[in-house]
Amino acid sequence: MIEQSNKKFYLVFLLVTIGLAGIVSFYASSSPDGLEKVAEDVGFIETAQDHSLDNSALADYGVAGIENERLSVGIAGIIGVIATGVLMYLIIKFISRKKP
Known about the structure:
The protein is mainly alpha-helical.
């Protein structure tokens, strides 16, 4: 089980991470990423196509159905943090289980 001192660390870490994902992520650069920038510079950006998950609930760094962009991006960030945390927890539990 997790020691008491570690619980406090993990709780603070979780709150800071959720704060960053939910609030600060809205202020991230809207400039094109590296691949998109190269595609623009080289001249093949017009050949880009939408992927099969383009209409999914968390497409384009937001939550579908939420009109407020700031809220949509923040909630998507929080969902991403929680999903990543749960996935990492499960992976660590699987890796660290004791062999009989």
